[in-house]
Amino acid sequence: MWDYTDKVLELFYDPKNQGAIEETGEAGVKVATGEIGSIACGDALRLHLKVEVASDKILDARFQTFGCTSAIASSSALTEMVKGLTLDEALKVSNKDIADYLGGLPEAKMHCSVMGQEALEAAIYNYRGIPLAAHDDDDEGVLICSCFGITDTKIRKAVAQNNLLSAEQVTNYVKAGGGCGSCLTKIDDIIREVKQETAKPNLNTNGVKATTEIASSMFNGGQQKPLTNVQKIALIQKVLDEEVRPVLIADGGDVELYDIEGNKVQVILKGACGSCSSSTATLKVAIEARLRDRISKEIIVEAV
Ligand code: FES
Hints:
single chain, 304 residues, 13 helices, globular, binds FE2/S2 (inorganic) cluster, nitrogen fixation
């Protein structure tokens, strides 16, 4: 069970500003939309901003999110935070600001705050007619994590801004490393480089001590780590997409991943599966047994 703050739970159970904002042709007003993430990766957010053209002020903000408790709370918090700001002021909102507004997020859920900040940036640049790739310095970076399409630039930014010290933390913030795990060594290298760059101004005073402390806190002697929650989510989604859904779809049904908490996997049975008298068997045999076989014997699947 995640340790959520009261504010996270409040905005999850009673989200503010859920939904879309449509263009109505109202004079002096335009709608900006930014979309980040993909359902295949576990989270997706579409952010809508109603902007007063003359002042660049955000009059209203709404969101549509596919994701977990913290994704919904982060999206809701973001919309509350940016209302009344100008676009330039909104661009200064960081993922840390979103997490702070919520009174903090479990570290494994920090990627939800990053997703909010990125959707905000995407909406504003779309509004300004600047293609995402043209303003996004990621396009000049080297692809590090092919599972999630994350470059070294994005990882460096997350490490520097949030003072990250391990590859597991990077996965929690930007998902890199959360799939097959083959990029984890490269992520460790990037963390070491960023920390060395950060430590350089202090070398004349206590540089030796600083780099020694950083190095010892970054690495765990190459021991095998258990799956992070993000890695687990990505694997579960992959097994559902590649091994379960094709079978169900062939029978006129389908399944959608709804949420994951620890080893409890909640799914929505759809189509013929939703009304089928043998839906319990579908859950236990087609889905739970497959996930236990592929990922963990502890997994329990429930329909919501
Ligand atoms: S390449 Fe990064 S997790 Fe697979």
